[in-house]
Amino acid sequence: MKIISIEVFAAQLPLLRPFIVAYDVYHELPSIIVKITTDTGITGYGEGMPDSHVTGETFSSTYEMLVKDIGPLLIGENPFDIEKIHRIMSSAVYHAPTAKAAIDIACYDAMGKATSQPVYNLLGGKSHETLTVPYVVSILAPEEMARQAAQAVQDGYTSIKIKVGDNPLVDVKRIQAVREAIGADIQLRVDANQGWCDAATAMRVLKQVEDCQMEWIEQPVLADDLIGLAQVRQKTFIPVMVDEGLHGDKEMREIIDRQAADFINIKLMKCGGLYPACKLVAQAEMAGMRCQVGSMVESSVATAAGAHLSIAKEMIFSNEMVGPLMFSQDFGKLNYQKNELILSDRPGLGVEVDEEVVRRFSVHSAVIE
């Protein structure tokens, strides 16, 4: 089986409501959809969701790199030769994980369809039967965040994740208000998205909310400050999760060496797709660290890929596959039932991609043959 063409679509997906994190406000999100076609007639879909604040890739750079630098090198390659494909991509460009993830996911989709297997069977089979997702609350006034969190609990969610990081003083009030609103039995995850910058600021906040029973604090310091992250972990009993500070093997080795985190947040857009993500899970397992699969707020395509990884690996205890719940339009459909994502057992990703929707929201497209 050989790749004979690659189509690349650069689209903007509209959100139901603004998504507000410490470093930006989003009203729509960029999505790069990749479709590979093989000489056997099998197609595979992948997605890249670039975030310039996290990987340094932009909407336009990811599209251009796929069209001009990566895609042409993969014509004639076998999607099953996934290690070779990653070697070709890495030889062409350094880093650029989002562009590589789009190709990687499309190859796994094609592999699953060629073997009549869901992607999770290509990754080790089912380790979990269900995937429970949290409700994510953007940065807002404390009372509004508390109201949204309480409503989510009424709607059946058992875990609430809140975004903080734009103002440490207000963040204390946000965390306290949400915990009071949801009660003691609901999981509360807090993500600062680097917003507290340094260990001293992070500890000032955490000392004031120690009684809020947080499941963990995610990325309380700047991404490159693994020393500061380790200091936070040493000084608080609240578990620490690394997100933006972990991309691939290089950071993983340093996190393990410095004992900088309790948990790691793996995102396909940060590490380059499912193949490198599996290597991160293996390293985490050797270090005794549990994993979460996070999301850049992706459409159903990349979300499905993350879900397949989540359900296949025992070390992955948490996932945040919530992207499709946040868009007013999507390229496909996943099955959410209250706070659970029910993953399809259809071959490949199990997502029926609506190309009409892809083309409607695309601002650029190209065919590589």
From TrEMBL:
Keywords of this entry: Isomerase, Magnesium, Metal-binding
Cofactor(s) listed: Mg(2+)
Domain Mandelate racemase/muconate lactonizing enzyme C-terminal, chain residue ranges per copy: 142-239
TM region positions: none
Cofactor detail note: Binds 1 Mg(2+) ion per subunit.
Short name of one Pfam family: MR_MLE_N
Keyword Oxidoreductase on entry: no
EC number of this enzyme: 5.1.1.-
Domain of life (superkingdom): Bacteria
Family under the similarity heading: Belongs to the mandelate racemase/muconate lactonizing enzyme family.
Protein name: Dipeptide epimerase
Classification lineage: Bacteria, Bacillati, Bacillota, Bacilli, Bacillales
